[in-house]
Design a protein that fits this description.
- This protein has about 180 residues and is an alpha+beta fold.
- Among the domains are: about 1-30; about 90-160, 3-Layer(bab) Sandwich (Phage tail protein beta-alpha-beta fold).
- Helix content is about 35%, strand content about 25%.
- The protein starts with a helix and ends in a 15-residue tail after the last strand.
Length: about 180
């Protein structure tokens, strides 16, 4: 049993010596000056490498700006673009085959044209009416003429009221005599 202990302690002593030697070499290499390193294959020092890199195209010197490619000319449009139709030009279709209250017809028409509606509460009566793919404002005008209504269309709002006399003041400039 004593022989085994000697072998183990001898192996451990060798391992300790190897570790101490590795640490000593690594500490010694840290203190070496950087300029002393040399490439054994090319026989170049660090200074030689820095000189080569400093004069190459890979240096950090500013590169001249590359010229941007020219912007191509615009191509003519193959199809003319159609501007989106305003509410006045939107085509609507409506078919009323039985006497339906005018209020309901105007509400449905405003919904189909996606416009706001202001409707006079005094409007009553019914109509039978048909219009297929007609401009919105033309359909409103036809209904207004049939039912004796007055309408105006401003800022996307359709205002419909009974066609009664109303008061309006006009400013007229005149030349002083």
């Amino acid at each position: 049993m004593g022989a085994r202990r000697r072998e183990t302690s001898l192996g451990w002593a060798c391992a300790k010596g190897f570790i101490v030697l590795a640490l000593a070499l690594s500490v010694a290499s840290c203190g070496a000056p950087l300029g002393d390193y040399q490439d054994p294959a090319a026989d170049l020092t660090r200074e030689d490498f820095e000189n080569v890199l400093g004069s190459s195209n890979f240096a950090a010197a500013p590169q001249p700006a590359a010229e941007a490619p020219p912007i191509p000319d615009l191509m003519p449009a193959l199809v003319a673009l159609v501007p989106p139709a305003g509410a006045e030009e939107r085509l609507v279709s409506i078919s009323v085959t039985d006497t339906v209250p005018i209020r309901s017809v105007l509400l449905e028409l405003a919904r189909a044209a996606e416009v706001d509606l202001e409707l006079d509460a005094a409007i009553d009566g019914g109509i039978i009416f048909t219009a297929h793919n007609k401009p919105f404002i033309e359909v409103v005008e036809r209904i207004a003429n049939m039912a004796n209504l007055r309408y105006s269309f401003k800022n996307g709002v359709l205002r419909v009221e009974l066609d009664r006399p109303y008061h309006r003041t006009y400013r007229i400039d005149q030349i002083a005599a």
